[in-house]
Amino acid sequence: MVWDYFHYANLARKGLISFKNGRITVTGLRVFLVDVDSLQGLSDRLKEKFGEETGAKAVYDAGRGAGSRATRAHRRFSKKSGEEQARYMAKMASGAGWGRIRVLDASPDGEIVVEDSPFRRRGAGRPSCDFLRGFLAGAASYIYRRRIDCVETECVSAGSKKCRFVLGSRQKFSRNAKLRKFRNQLAG
Ligand SMILES: [Zn+2]
User: Fold this and answer.
1) How far is the CA of 122 from the centre of ligand 1 (A)?
2) What is the whole-number distance in angstroms between the Cα of residue 106 and the centre of ligand 1?
3) How far is the CA of 18 from the centre of ligand 1 (A)?
4) Distance 127 CA to ligand 1 centre (A)
5) 123-to-45, 69, 163, 171 alpha-carbon distances in Å
6) Where are the alpha helices (DSSP H) in the chain?
7) How high is the pLDDT of residue 7?
8) How far is the CA of 139 from the centre of ligand 1 (A)?
9) Domain residues of the chain, as ranges?
């Protein structure tokens, strides 16, 4: 979508994206282009070696770091905070190819729907967007300055039309009867 690209065109115009000597930086953060299956391959190897749940948790934790770093990098230039910052990050992540991200609720207990997630796995039969789930948790934790976790309650990999993510504290996921069954996504 042109609109997605527009956010990055804007950053480029302000000189916040640089391509130089084999090095790309976006708002000061070094990035590089890699195909989606490379990251999926890493995720698959982790799950094979350590089991589905432990592997997924490792990918989720790595995603948390990515979300936190990206949000910090954009914060330096966007000067937004709170829910405004959360919505801004959703636009930037959509623009960066992380799927069509729609924020239904931008609060620390928020809800996010993603269409065309790059992390979907045909035939997986269970939610598989662990890196994206971690990214959302890491971004929210950075924005709201406290530990926020994220579970994926619907996923294209498990037969849903869209992927749906719910944010909140660990306590919330233990107490809420509807969310309790997703707690295993957060187990170590
Ligand atoms: Zn998914």
Assistant:
1) 10
2) 19
3) 31
4) 5
5) 17, 32, 15, 31
6) 2-13, 36-50, 52-78, 82-95, 130-144, 170-175
7) 84
8) 18
9) 2-185
Give the whole-angstrom CA distance, residue 15 versus residue 17. 6
pTM for the whole structure: 0.95
Q: Is residue 1's pLDDT more than 60?
A: no
Ligand 1 centroid to residue 14 C-alpha, Å = 34
- What dotted CATH number matches 2-185? 3.30.1380.20
pLDDT in tens, 161-172: 999 999 999 999
In angstroms, what is the span from residue 42 Cα to ligand 1's centroid? Answer: 17
CA 16 to ligand 1 centroid distance, Å: 31
Average pLDDT of the residues in 100-110:
97
pLDDT band at 4 (very low <50, low <70, confident <90, very high): confident
